[in-house]
């Protein structure tokens, strides 16, 4: 049994950005015994528990806790550091397993470099990653605002109400326990709890009343509903459209930087899979089908430019009747989806469906 300390990835199986970290683990060929996975229940606000906040004061998922290089020897006291944002986690996983890294590894799998090879490609990669993590592209906010009309809001209400109620109540318990001196929390932590509780309650003021028609709502709640739907429409039809336009200009195709997978593709795969899930996509959909569903959701005549030359030979992962004519031009993101979803890493992370 190895005495070498392991890294620990705190994740949630339905977290969009935790999925990026999981994809990176698979693409880099880490062995199952090299990184321990610890699930964090976001619905129960476990990410905001004192134990999690000691590792990551922001309370975000994923969080990667890694042993410091100079404390790896079995006879030494092991010390650790936490990597707390997705960009840094993916970069760390890429650099920590390579032909020249000093990381102890039990895996014999290849460790392809995912970092861009040139300054120009590094710039494109950074632009894409920053875009995907921008406020306009925020997949978690888009998830809350998936409903853009009253009927969709009514359908989404029960599940989101249950999720947010459980989360709010868990945060309220933290606050209560701190007030009663049952746990010791800093002012910064108490402020974070108050903010997260208020955020949940704000959404609940909309979702908890979705069974009521507009005419049955008090004027203040009717105003909140109208404002919520207005925001939803803007997020999907204006801001997300802007993101896709900017993204298309950066992509080379079929992957972000061309034929080879890079760190940017790990982020894009996780983000696009969440968008696909929210528009009703499935793991069996082709890239063209996914983009068609996104176009219908954004609406207002939006279409993806079809300016990528399709390869002459296509993988037979779908019904031949759905394949693109060899040599035909298609959207870059459609080609990306087809190539990415054919990879073993993506199939493993999304084995239970899109999320």
From TrEMBL:
<dbReference type="InterPro" id="IPR036249">
    <property type="entry name" value="Thioredoxin-like_sf"/>
</dbReference>
<protein>
    <recommendedName>
        <fullName>GST N-terminal domain-containing protein</fullName>
    </recommendedName>
</protein>
<dbReference type="InterPro" id="IPR010987">
    <property type="entry name" value="Glutathione-S-Trfase_C-like"/>
</dbReference>
<feature type="domain" description="GST N-terminal">
    <location>
        <begin position="5"/>
        <end position="101"/>
    </location>
</feature>
<dbReference type="InterPro" id="IPR036282">
    <property type="entry name" value="Glutathione-S-Trfase_C_sf"/>
</dbReference>
<feature type="domain" description="GST C-terminal">
    <location>
        <begin position="165"/>
        <end position="355"/>
    </location>
</feature>
<dbReference type="InterPro" id="IPR004045">
    <property type="entry name" value="Glutathione_S-Trfase_N"/>
</dbReference>
<dbReference type="Pfam" id="PF13409">
    <property type="entry name" value="GST_N_2"/>
</dbReference>
